[in-house]
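pasting for ref
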Amino acid sequence: MNISGTSPVEDPSYRYKMPAVMGKIEGKGNGIKTVIINISALALSLHRSPGEVTKHFGCELGAQTTYNESTDRAVVNGAHTDMVLQQTVHKYIQEFVLCPNCGLPETNYSFRNGCVVHRCMACGAKEMVDMSHKLCTYILAQEKKRKQEEKKSGKKKGDKKEARVVEAEDDKKDKKKKKKKSKDSDDEKKKKKKKDKKKKDKKKSKDSDSDDLADGVDDLSISSEAGVDDEGAMLLAIAAVKKYMAEEPLASTSDIAEVVINQQMASALKSHDRIHIFLRSVLTPNFFKNKEIQTHAPVMVELLNANPIMERHLISAVEFSCLEKTSNFAIMLKLLFDEDVLSEQVILEWAFDGRTDYTLDAVEEEKRAILRSGAEPVVQWLNQEDSSDEDSDSDSD
């Protein structure tokens, strides 16, 4: 069956598959228990440990669980149907397997300041899991245990390695004593010939590289091999989107969004780069007069897909676009809020959490501080509006 969270994936060609949970009820009375027969196959398909998956059953079903690694036997106390177990697995996948950004089961755990973080291999996103869940305690404990075991095994390996190094050094000393003979002129001539040959080869390779680069200026695949960075790929994608919109002025919102996504994927850029591509394709210095944000808001909404993480990347794209004229930043934020592209919650989070991991490298700290201070009137207005809404709600209660 398809690997899916709380929302099912109906696509029959979906490549991420897992086995259905198979439980077997054993015992009677107070000793009744459910054995998960295929726990290893299930855990393997999710790229997680069988112990962790078993522990999640216990956290969600409020039951004691045990997993024996030597016998590969997972036991959950109490009688539980396959349907209940399967629903629990889908909940586990939603919270601990799927990437919050792209929704694919391509995540691994990384650990930062005692927190468990999803690191997605598909889109590159790094998002913290819900640390209030009981399973996080187990995951952190297992990571601590793993580090301790690595430390112990590292010491043993280190001792053996040191012994080997000492032996190797002794052997070298013996060889050096035996080989204390002067080198004749023939050896020197051979070395000189080798050096000359290497220089000629290097010169040839440099000439061929420069020829390839000159021939492949308009070819994305060749230019990528020649060392063009993500910014080069981004510029090519922006040019392609601009060209399409110029040729198809009456294109629908969904068609434009599809072109942007296709260009992002073809350029091997990350999924959140699509909002950077679109914003840099449509915004000009006369954005306010030409009502460019109002015109292109529907496409932005479709690209963001109501994802708060994508909204944060939109703010970073706006920061980048306002580097030359920082006073435009607050205006753009307000317009994006008015057009329901950016939510109030995301703007306030951006203003108060102080995170810099969404900010582009091109936006230096000094410029970032100027942009933030310029946006303070908008943030204060949203904050006051939020607090007035809360007051009205409390009055009505």
